[in-house]
Specification:
The structure holds two protein chains of two kinds.
Chain A (H helix, E strand, L loop, with lengths): L11 H19 L11 E7 L2 E6 L11 E4 L10 E3 L2 E2 H7 L4 E5 L12 H20 L4 E6 L1 H12 L4 E7 L9 H6 L7 H7 L2 E2 L2 H8 L3 H15 L7 H11 L5 E2 H13 L9 E2 L2 E2 L9 E6 L7 H4 L11 E6 L10 H17 L7
Parallel strand pairs in A: 3-6, 3-7, 7-8, 8-13, 13-14
Antiparallel strand pairs in A: 1-2, 2-6, 4-5, 9-10, 11-12
Helix pairs in contact in A: 3-4, 6-10
Chain B lengths: L4 H7 L1 H24 L2 H31 L5 H34 L100 H6 L6 H9 L5
Classes of the chains: A alpha/beta, B mainly alpha.
């Protein structure tokens, strides 16, 4: 009969060290809400309702002629593109010599129940663009949209070709015919969108957040902390960097009721943009009206904006100069982090540089 | 006594948890993905959400009734105030848009440039009667009034009175000029930024600037004033 090994209980020192790590972990998680983010100096140059347009300050005049207009998603905080020094796309663009503007949609409240995507595209973005024209002195700009902001940017570019010199889409879903798990969860007859927006003037931030986390529940709810625990044992681990990212992931924004309904019904369920059926203020919104150079950046393992939703644009704009960069990674990972700064940003910078010259009249 | 890292890890209770997670993470993820992508899960999650919303609506309705009974403003009341403010802001934005359009139009007209021909000036008044010529066989007719500078010619002055017979009747004096009507320079609307532009940037539905820009006819100041008056609500 084989001798059974008695259970090995950790001795006091091991328990203490382990306990120490757990305390560090708790500190990292609980302190994340106050992690410093969005530190690049900026000035407010235009505002409307909760939306704010910022111009990032430069110590020297911009060396490029075309300003960059960053259009952010509606359900996330805008500091994702300016997470922290050294991990900031905005900082990178400033370093490349661009005049950088960013629209932050703010936090909608009950009074914004009727605020829809059409209003944002036809009344907010054009006025923000005008403010950019005035501030920069340039007639045209590069419009760069991230995630839902990319969808908005594409609609804006289709309606206002006169101000869009270049369009850059960063993991922006445009075709919802195969929208993955999100598409199935929000399908007509399953997802009670009308009841939801009737009940809540603004859809609580937790709802889209839970939906996103359910795309990969193990990694979202357990894997994050497992990684943190592991990394806390590494001396070079940057806790502040982890906290900044953790803060952003858990710092979602409520979705204005009408905007959410329009997003689910007209984009996800009816796929109007890709089917050339989308109208805003009575005007058709057609991707074929986009004639400017287009750069589409997609992530290979994107579960929020899966590949079929992002690969559509290049073949459906009228531009002679439409290209794509496919990056290995997920929806957020390709935008921030070390691989982004070493891999993606320089490519985007090179593309922007080559498209900075005025277009032929 | 200093333990090696390996020993520490082996004794660490969280190490056991980590190993458990690593060993099963893939299997659990696959199982969850499979479950969540099934139509049954989607249907059931939809129903769960519906139930939760019904409960939430009931709570909200009850709370509203309670607050109304207590004469305390509800969330809806406060939101309504906020809506009014947001609506006012939009109206101000529309007025600013129109001012921008006017300013752009003014800037677009080069200094010293003449505007296109104005409308016809009104007819000049009739020239006065020619004075009677001296006595002579026949008095000549009075000269017609001169043409107004930009208006049409003044009405012909009436004929001079027939004078008495004499050697030569003097001509009646000329009628005064017709009233000069100065054509005001019409305020041209700003053309779109480029020829490609379908509509101006602020062509939100209520803003009529797009109509101006699209029209080839330059609108006069009156038309612009009318546009301003036609500011619609949000």
């Amino acid at each position: 009969m084989a001798a059974t090994t008695p259970p090995v209980w950790p001795d006091a020192q091991t328990l203490w060290m382990s306990n120490d790590r757990v305390l560090e972990m708790a500190q990292a998680v609980l302190g994340a809400a106050d992690a410093p983010v969005g530190l690049t100096p900026k000035a407010l140059i235009w505002r409307k309702n909760k939306a704010r347009l910022y111009r990032y300050l430069r110590s020297e005049p911009a060396t490029h002629q075309t300003p960059i207009f960053l259009v952010l998603p509606l359900i996330n905080r805008s500091y994702i593109l300016d997470l922290r020094p050294g991990a900031s796309f905005v900082e990178f663009l400033l370093g490349q010599g661009y005049d950088v503007f960013l629209i932050d949609w703010g936090t909608p409240a009950d009074e914004d129940q009727a605020l829809d995507i059409t209003t944002l595209v036809t009344r907010y973005l054009p006025r923000a663009a005008k403010a950019i024209q005035r501030a920069s002195g340039a007639d045209q700009m590069t419009v760069l949209g991230y995630c839902i902001g990319g969808t908005l940017a594409a609609c804006f570019a289709a309606l206002h070709p006169e101000v869009t010199r270049n369009l850059v889409l960063l993991t922006a879903p445009l075709d919802f015919s195969d929208a993955g798990q999100f598409g199935r969860m929000t399908a007509r007859g399953i997802f009670p969108v009308q009841q939801l927006t009737d009940t809540f003037p603004t859809v609580p931030a937790q709802l889209p957040d839970i939906g996103t986390k359910l795309l990969n529940p193990m990694a979202s709810y357990v894997g994050t902390y497992r990684q943190l625990y592991e990394k806390l044992g590494v001396e070079t681990f940057d806790v502040r960097g982890w906290q900044a990212m953790y803060r952003w992931v858990n710092d979602s924004v409520p979705f204005a009721g009408s905007a959410f309904r329009q997003w689910i019904v007209e984009f996800y369920q009816e796929n109007r943009l890709a089917r050339d059926e989308l109208e805003m203020e009575g005007r058709p919104v057609r991707l074929s009206e986009i004639h400017c150079p287009v750069l589409n950046i997609a992530a290979s393992r994107d579960q929020i904006a899966p590949r079929p939703t992002t690969s559509f644009v290049v073949g459906h704009v009228s531009s002679d100069d439409a290209s794509e960069i496919l990056v290995e990674g997920g929806h957020v990972g390709i935008v921030v982090g070390r691989s982004a700064s070493q891999n993606l940003w320089p490519k985007v910078g090179a593309w922007l540089d080559s498209h900075d010259r005025p277009t032929a009249a | 006594m200093t333990k090696t890292q390996d020993q520490t890890r082996a004794d660490d209770p969280f190490e056991t948890w980590r190993q458990l997670y690593d060993a099963n993470e893939r299997a659990w993820t696959e199982a969850l993905e499979q479950t969540m992508s099934s139509p049954e899960f989607e249907e059931s999650s939809g129903k769960m959400l519906e139930t939760m919303l019904a409960a939430q609506k009931s709570v909200r309705d009850n709370m509203r009734t309670y607050l109304e009974t207590m004469n305390v403003p509800t969330r809806e009341d406060i939101a309504r105030l906020g809506e009014l403010v947001v609506g006012l802001e939009e109206k101000i934005d529309q007025v600013v848009d129109r001012l921008d359009t006017i300013e752009d139009a003014i800037r677009a007209v080069p200094a010293g440039a003449t505007g296109p021909a104005g409308p016809k000036g009104s007819a000049g008044p009739a020239g006065p009667k020619g004075s009677a010529g001296p006595a002579g066989p026949k008095g000549s007719a009075g000269r017609t009034g001169p043409v107004g500078r930009t208006g049409p010619a003044g009405r012909p002055g009436p004929a001079g009175k027939v004078g008495r017979a004499g050697p030569a009747g003097r001509r009646g004096p000329a009628g005064p000029a017709g009233r000069v009507t100065t054509a005001k320079r019409p305020t041209a609307t700003k053309p779109p930024v480029s020829a490609k532009a379908a509509t101006p940037m602020t062509a939100a539905k209520p803003v009529t600037a797009s109509k101006n820009a699209a029209s080839a006819k330059p609108a006069g100041p009156t038309a612009v004033a009318k546009d301003i008056k036609r500011t619609e609500g949000v």
